[in-house]
Structure formats: C-alpha cells, structure tokens
Amino acid sequence: MMGNCDLTTDSNRFAKLVLMSVTIAMCFFFLLTKVVLQKQNNVKLFPWSQLSSTQPDTKIRSKKQNEEMLLKQREDNCRDYRISKQAIYRLKEYWSSPIVVPKYKLIFFWNEKSACTYWKKLFQFIQGINNTEVHNHRNGLTTLKSFDTCEIIKMMYNESWVKAVFVREPRERLLSSYLDKAHHQHIMYQLCRVNRTVTFYEFLEIIKTL
Ligand SMILES: *[C@@H]1O[C@H](CO)[C@@H](O)[C@H](O)[C@H]1NC(C)=O
Ligand SMILES: *[C@@H]1O[C@H](CO)[C@@H](O)[C@H](O)[C@H]1NC(C)=O
Ligand SMILES: *[C@@H]1O[C@H](CO)[C@@H](O)[C@H](O)[C@H]1NC(C)=O
C-alpha cells in the first residue's frame, strides 16, 4: 500500500515537473523565435513589443545589465548572417586563405599568377616583417584561417573592413601559369598528377578537368 502511495505521489510530482518543463520550454522557444524574427526583419512583429520596450521595468534595468546585454548581442550577431560552410572552408583553406592586415582593417584576396609575390612582399614590408619566406606559413603574414568562423563572418560583413582583390587579364594569367608550371615535370606531377612536361593545348585540356 505504502509503495503504491509513494508511486502516486512520485508520478504526480513527475507530471508537475514535466508540465513545468514544457511550459518553460515553450516560453523560451516563443521568446527566442520572437527575438530572432525581430532581429532578422528589423521590425516589431507584435503590437506589445513596442509597449514592452518602453515599459518602466526596462528603465529599472541597471546600466550594467544593459551593457552586458549589448555585449552578448554583439557576440551573437555573427549568427544573423548567412554564409555557406563551403565559403567558410574556402576562406580558411591552408594554401589560399586571404591576407589580413589588422592595422589597416584590410582583407586582401590574393591570386596565384596575379602578382601575389609582389603583394605578399608589400604586406610584409608595410607591417615591418623582415622575412625571406613569402609563399608559406613562415612568411609572418596573418590570414583569415587564424580567426574563428564567427570572427571571420563579422569581419566580412563589417563595412569598416576593406575587402580587396587583385585580378589579372585571364588569358595573360593562363599563359603565365603555363610558362611557370608546365615546363617543369615535378610541378606538373605535384599539381596535376601528370609526370611530364606538356604542350599549351594539353595544358588547356588538363586545367579544364581541375
Ligand atoms: C632583415 O634580416 C636580415 C637577417 O635575417 C638582416 O641582415 C637585415 O639587416 C634585416 N633587415 C632589416 C631592414 O631589418
Ligand atoms: C566593425 O569593425 C570596427 C573596427 O574594427 C569595430 O569597431 C566595430 O565594432 C565593428 N562592428 C561590428 C558590427 O562588429
Ligand atoms: C616520373 O618520371 C621520371 C622519369 O622521367 C621517373 O624517374 C619518376 O619516378 C616518375 N615519377 C612518378 C611518381 O611516377
């Protein structure tokens, strides 16, 4: 009998607990949806949101709490932007990650066979990096891959940061890469798994498949 009684009390308590959890979860979900939607659309979706933002209790909230909230919003705001995983992956790619010059708030998208040696040396020079290495991780340059995803997203969408790219006339760039790479057997093997030097037309066929 005692056992039964205990069981009933327990299950009552359990039911209450479940009800409470569900209510809290629903409230939380509702609030979250509201906040996210408002942030995304930058509009007040509910008639009482206008009210709630001017209600006296917000005035009572201390300055410190407000600052904390703002800080938290700032930390979270990279989630507002949509940027594909693939794009992030490419920005962080080991060999091609764009150069970051924090002092000038610059993100520079360099390209191979488009004066990249020149640009890398220039960025070393203006930052006082005295380094003979240019094309590897010992070149002393900061790249996007050393930032975490949220930081990258925020920098990419922040208008105070200049995003720049240097391009070259494509046919000239193609010829330049042919002269630079296709005449070296070991490079052709390394890059294209073709263990010989190739003619220009072969080169065109090969790069089509890359
Ligand atoms: C750069 O470093 C080399 C040695 O690594 C040194 O001989 C040279 O004077 C340095 N140049 C500058 C401008 O500091
Ligand atoms: C944008 O960058 C500037 C300079 O780094 C910084 O002061 C500002 O807070 C950033 N803005 C956002 C929305 O992150
Ligand atoms: C590439 O060819 C050279 C001869 O031209 C040969 O010595 C070398 O082993 C070859 N490398 C591969 C990976 O097949």
From TrEMBL:
Gene Ontology terms: biological process: carbohydrate biosynthetic process
Keywords carried by this UniProt record: Carbohydrate metabolism, Glycoprotein, Golgi apparatus, Membrane, Signal-anchor, Transferase, Transmembrane, Transmembrane helix
GO CC terms, sorted: Golgi membrane
Gene Ontology MF, one: sulfotransferase activity
Subcellular localization(s) per the UniProt record: Golgi apparatus membrane
Transmembrane segments: 17-37
Pfam families, per database record: Sulfotransfer_2
Membrane topology, from the record: Single-pass type II membrane protein
EC numbers: 2.8.2.-
InterPro entries: Carb_sulfotrans_8-10 (IPR018011), Sulfotransferase (IPR005331)
Family membership: Belongs to the sulfotransferase 2 family.
Listed name of the protein: Carbohydrate sulfotransferase
